[in-house]
Amino acid sequence: MRRQFSLLAIATLAAPLPGLAQTVTAAPDVAPASGLVIRASPRIDPSLWFADGDYPLAAMRAEQEGHAGVLLDIASDGRVDACTQLSSEYEWLGRASCRILIRRARFTPALGRDRKPAPDRWNVSIDWKLPPFPPRREDPTVHHGVYGDVPVIATEHLSAPEALGDPDLWLQPADYPPELLKRGGKIEVTLKVAKNGLVRSCRIDVSSSVRRWDRQVCALLRRRARFQPEKQAEEKWRSNEWWHRYSWGPATAQ
Q1: Would you say 230 and 238 are in contact if contact means Cβ atoms under 8 Å apart?
Q2: What are the pLDDT tens digits along the chain (254 aa)?
Q3: Torsion of Cα atoms, 112 then 115 then 116 then 121, to 10°
Q4: Taking the CB of residue 58, how many other CB atoms lie within 10 A of it?
Q5: How many other C-beta atoms are found inside a 10 Å radius of the C-beta of residue 222?
Q6: Please, what are the domains in the chain?
Q7: Most buried pick, 77, 128, 155, 189, via CB within 10 A?
Q8: For the TonB C-terminal domain, which residue ranges apply (predicted)?
């Protein structure tokens, strides 16, 4: 079954998830280590290793898009032992690719002739595309007043930070503790956003009931969440707070 999965991976892993800013293509290195009878294979779809929130801020500000090709050295425990940049149109994109892959990529180890786990190598190609700016959303607030002798109800639109890309992709299936995925749950967070689009602080409004996961969610969102800078918005923010609910269950891991 492992051999079959590896062969399928070469053909199918090039397809990106809807809304992702990165297209990921992954395949075993054409020059494997000698003595392997089964190649290493990703534990999850490699497109899930990346999210819109991963886009390097420096590259985003410079509006840099491009290709990055890297070679992964996979240890016998399935973790990435080293990442070598083979090609990159921009330094930021190559460095970000290796940093993310070392942290997130996990493999079912290769097997040698003795049927014991063995090191292997995989080539990964990432096409970085700037995430699209989503349609502007506004929160209406109703104000009651009097104009002359006539009562009026006026609607004022309060502008708030706009997420870059799909916020649901800022938390990936590999991030969730297995025990939480089995029983399902939700968490509600409020982020305070700086004028440059980075997260200043994270507040848990509705806890997942697992304090360790609450802290992890905030840590991940501080690293990955990106917003359109205020100076690029059509008007100044009336509030720098952004709220979101994350829900999960067994289907999240699929």
Answers
A1: no
A2: 333 222 222 222 333 333 345 677 777 876 666 688 899 999 988 888 887 667 776 777 677 888 899 999 999 999 999 999 998 888 878 888 998 899 889 999 999 999 999 999 999 999 888 765 444 343 333 333 333 333 333 333 345 788 888 888 898 888 888 888 888 888 889 999 998 989 999 999 888 888 899 999 999 999 999 998 888 876 777 778 888 888 887 655 55
A3: 30
A4: 14
A5: 14
A6: 2-128 (3.30.2420.10), 160-253 (3.30.2420.10)
A7: 128
A8: 54-130, 175-235
